Amino acid sequence: MKKFSFLILAACCLFSLNANCQKYKTADDTIKLNKEYLKLVADTAGLRREIEEGETDLQKYRSVYESKQKLALESAEASSKQADKATDGDTKHAKKAKKLAGDAYDDRKKADDAKDDIKKQEKKLAKLNKQLTKKTERLQELDKMKTAILQLDAPIPQ
Length: 158
Description:
Elements: H1 2-20, H2 30-86, H3 91-153
Helix pairs in contact: 2-3
């Protein structure tokens, strides 16, 4: 019996929470609701613009990465070929091989940096998309509140 009465009490509390958790309840609150709504609309438009710019930047970062990756591979091949020539024992070829190896290493580091830029941009876009989702959900909640307020203030037809 105690468990049953506890369950009924808990259910009543849960159902009443849904009605009471609405921030804006009366027609007097519509001004505040509209202010928050307009702010959220502006924020979502800004976030969409930032996401669009971020996606454009991401495409640029990917093309830079591909070109740097290609350059690094070409540098490594050139270095390898020069190292093969250096096995003859000529110091001129050995110095050139060392220089090309250093260049190949630098190109590889630049490609890795470009890859890191891509990862940072992807994280940024994920964060912006998460913020946009939250703000969009809040806009939907405000729409529901606005509808509830309008239904409460609507005259009862006779």
